[in-house]
Design brief:
The protein is α/β, with parallel strands linked by helices. The chain is built from nine helices and eleven strands. It has two domains: about 100 residues, Rossmann fold, CATH 3.40.50; about 120 residues, Rossmann fold (3-Layer(aba) Sandwich), CATH 3.40.50. About 35% of the residues lie in helices and about 25% in strands. A six-stranded mixed sheet has the order 3-8-7-4-5-6. A five-stranded parallel sheet has the order 2-1-9-10-11. β10, α8 and β11 form a beta-alpha-beta unit. α5 packs parallel to α6 and α7 packs parallel to α8. The longest helix has 11 residues. The N and C termini lie close together (about 10 Å).
């Protein structure tokens, strides 16, 4: 039976997808997320979210969805689940893309004269900020959570390791002994995460969609179970 390591603790339904495919699972959180205090401006015409963590941090801060419906105008986000979480809390999503680079392209092309508030963590991709700066688009970053690495040493081998962020890759690879198993496949949730993984190994595959379920499906298919 193949064994995989998930660098994020999975839900019971997600675990069942692996179990039903005959895969043994080891899991841990390669990164820790901590919400921080922040102030939300009274009026936000255009908001950017690139992760569910930022959305969750916002609503913990805001306390009640009614507050956010009053404060927010349009919203732009990365990822289907981020979009769903925003809409569940009453925020209208104008545009969703699978990757930050695609959202940056859209904003530059369609909203060059608008201003934005970008809700993010302390470790975030530079894709959107750099593109907005290059095109003189006004934006303000609001840090709503902090990401810290949780490097953990594993003395066993895995057939595949599942990654869900570049930070997760860095955390796992910080303990160099993790890399003694050169045959392990690094299964990544998207191209940005995969780019980080390729710094450590050539044995990298990318899920078809930026969801945990897609990472699991790609793992099962890659292991040819």
């Amino acid at each position: 039976m193949p064994t995989v390591l998930s660098t994020k603790k999975l839900t019971e339904k997600q675990k069942e997808l692996l179990q039903n495919a005959g895969v043994s699972l080891v899991e841990y959180n390669a990164i820790n997320i901590d919400f921080v205090s922040f102030k939300v401006p009274s009026i936000i015409e255009n908001a950017i979210f690139t992760s569910q963590n930022a959305v969750n941090a916002l609503f913990k801060n805001e306390c009640h969805p009614e507050r956010s419906r009053r404060v927010f105008g349009n919203c732009f986000c990365v990822g289907e689940k981020t979009k769903a979480l925003l809409e569940e809390n009453g925020i209208k999503v104008i545009k969703m893309t699978e990757y930050a680079s695609k959202l940056a392209d859209y904003l530059v092309k369609n909203h060059k004269n608008d201003s934005f508030h970008f809700f993010c963590g302390n470790i975030r991709s530079d894709e959107i900020p750099s593109r907005l700066k290059e095109n003189n688009i006004t934006f303000k970053e609001i840090e709503v959570y902090k990401t810290t690495l949780n490097p953990t040493k594993f003395e066993r081998q895995f057939d595949a390791v599942l990654f869900f962020s570049p930070s997760g890759v860095r955390s796992y690879c910080e303990e160099r002994s993790n890399l003694t198993d050169n045959k392990a496949i690094f299964v990544c949730i998207g191209t940005t995460t995969a780019s980080e993984a390729k710094r450590y190994t050539e044995n990298v595959v990318v899920s078809n969609a930026t969801t945990v379920e897609s990472v699991i499906a790609k793992t099962v298919k890659t292991l040819k179970i």
